[in-house]
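Workshop exercise sheet. Pairs work together: one partner reads the sequence aloud, the other fills in the structure field after running the prediction. Swap roles for the next sheet.
Pair: D.N. / O.F.
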Amino acid sequence: MKKKTAKEKKPESNLAISPITGIPEPLNPLTESQQRAYYYLVDLLKESNLVIPVDVVILTQLAIAIDLAEQARQALEQTGTVQTYKTGARAVSPELSAWKQANEVIERLGAKFGLSPKDRSKLSEAVKKEEPPRWDPLYGFDQPNWREYADEYDRRKGLRGK
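Structure field:
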């Protein structure tokens, strides 16, 4: 059996990184408007330090969804939200359905990057540096009174007398 190379183990390392943005180029060829959305998102998220090269997959999908929503919105301005047939029957226009679906995708994918206030608060809580557990055996070891922490830990674990 042949050993896997580092690139085979981590496919995201195969992604070409742009010297300008410092992150991979979009996964698929994008239209001009999709590229604008993609690089706008990258610029917004770059400072968060939450984006890693493999995120290019979701960012590409998100850029496409943003473009689709914009195209549907422009079509809605032309056609309106209700379609009337020759028979007099009325129905929601396909453009409105496309707009709604694109926005659902935007919400779902955008949540992964904290693009709404609610999602940002969830992400910031998850990213906050966690305190070590109170009775971690190494907790407080760097403090002058580290022996007190070690003794208390041993007492709680039943390693020493009470």
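Discussion prompt: The two ends are 57 Å apart (CA to CA). What would you look at next?
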